[in-house]
Structures are given as structure tokens and as C-alpha cells.
Predict the 3D structure of the following.
Amino acid sequence: MGEGVDPTHMCQTLVHKVAQSRQLMAVTDPDILILFESWLDELEYEVAAYLKQHPQGTTGDLAESLGLSKRGADFLLAKLQRQKEV
């Protein structure tokens, strides 16, 4: 086909992603999702409380203080900023 997108590869990738999605949906338990959401809410509360006490703290400080990875701290900060909670 020359340069550009390979439609066969795109279709194979799409089919693989749909299969993965179905597999994940099959093992998802609503009770586990509720627990996860509760845990995430608690983490967001802890992040907001930390930021109030340490307004000049870095993401690394936040991660270390709460036992998170730096990537996890970045995610939570971005989420709270999008929600305008910090």
C-alpha cells in the first residue's frame, strides 16, 4: 500500500482492544468499583489536606508524604485541579 496507515493492522488492533475491553468488563465487580471509588475519594481528600498544610510542597513531597508514586501524585493533583478543588 505504500506509505500511510495499514487498514489490516488497524482492524486487528481494534479487534484486540474490543476483546480486551470485554474481558475486563467480565471480571469487573460493581462492589470492587465502589471500594475503588471510595479509596480514590479518600486519597483526593488527603491530597487536598496536604496541600492546605504545605502550599509550597512539591509533587515529590506529596508523593513521599502520602506513600504514592510521583506519577500517582501527579495524577491526583491534575484531577483535583480539573475539578477546581485545589
Notes: The chain has one domain: 7-82.
